[in-house]
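User: I'm putting together notes for a lab meeting next week and I want to include a structural view of one of the chains we've been expressing. I don't have a solved structure, so I'd like a prediction I can at least talk through. The sequence is below, exactly as it appears in our construct file.
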Amino acid sequence: MTNKPKKTTQGVYTQFRASQNYDALRVFVRPANGKQVTIKPALNSTLRQINRYLKNNKIKKAVAVEDPHFKNLLASLNSELRAEFGLKSYLIQAKLDLKRKNFDFDTALDEFEKIKSDVSVGRAYRSLITHFWLPFFIKEKGCEKPSDFINFKKEAEKYVRTAKNKFGRPYSVQSYTTLCRPLNSFMRFCFEYNYIKGDEEFFTLKVGTTMHLRKLSRIKGGKKSELSPQFVRTKDTYTLDDMVEIKKKIDSAFKDDLDWKLRSYGIYIGIVTGLRRGNLCGLKAKHLKPDDKIPHIEIHDNVLSGWNFNMKGAVVVEESTKTTEGEDLKIPMLAPDIDTVIEVAQFLIEHIDPEDRILSCYPDTVGRWWKKICEQLKIKYLHPHAWRHSFATVASLNLDDWFGGNRRLLQKACLHSSFRTTEKYINDNADEYLKQFARIRSKKS
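Assistant: Thanks for the context. Below is the predicted structure for the 445-residue chain, given as structure tokens.
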């Protein structure tokens, strides 16, 4: 009886990435034990041949899946990656690719990630260096070590402005800082640990966005601009009237669906308080205090993505927020009005065990659930981060009524470490400001 060969992969998965004239193929391999691996065309000749074929013949996904030549190439790639040593050979090649120059980028990135992890999400910094910057400096420009990067500073600025994201579209102007920050941190790391020498090899990149460029990104109509408004992060917020209307629509749409009403009410707590998703997902029913003399919410656990810590699933950090650790935090129930948020909190308490979380999901799931709810309610969808801007805006307009004119109380209600941060979250939303003027005028009359 012959022994079956040891299974080295759980599966090979494919995904098409759309571009204007053709769809490129992306391939991922899940090892039997380990993290998913993205196969790079630069390191795999078969995948490179497939994408060259799709590009040269301008083939989109719908045609590719029926194309005999494409299917033959894909079958060869599958067989190659599923072979006993297929993935192992690829990983060795990928590792050597970073070490084949005069500088060991692989080891330097390990050190860089570890150091950045002390103050931020080191994996995110490393990921952008590996997948965005090294292909430019090493593959395109032939750099052999970080000290060579300075020779292409101007080209790097152009690269940020013209690079395409995974959807084949240029990055939005709002992304420029996000793309430059990891490179700047890596260059500082190289300088501090003597991988580069002195000011003649050190530089930081700042790709600015002028007012004209930001205006250009909002141009509508005609030929689609590379900075289409479709891809510009919204600055819209929910107004107090929006918050009241959302509550009414939840009650109407989910009166016979308890599960989705509880999900909607749990998310509603996040909208009207401006809580970060991590702390919202960390709320248990017992943390809602609608019946106290001053109705409030206790902030305890922070649920974060395990990816940030090189772990699977979610990670629960007890007694913390993004900027605090080990502090006893409480925020008052204020928006859209105390009676409305008390009603929502009491409903959650009645139907959820005190030790259970009001939202049983990962932080990333909150936005997906809310988008589905918005489609059902036929209301505008705003990303969970916009909820923080919404609360800060409506709270600032009610500074006298809610906080007695004390800006420090507003800052604490927003869970910010300084009022300067709170000011940045207050949006100049014309609708909400005009409505506030109307409220003031009606009170005087």
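A couple of points you could mention at the meeting. Confidence is low (pLDDT under 50) at residues 220-233. The longest helix spans residues 122-140.

User: Perfect, that's what I needed.
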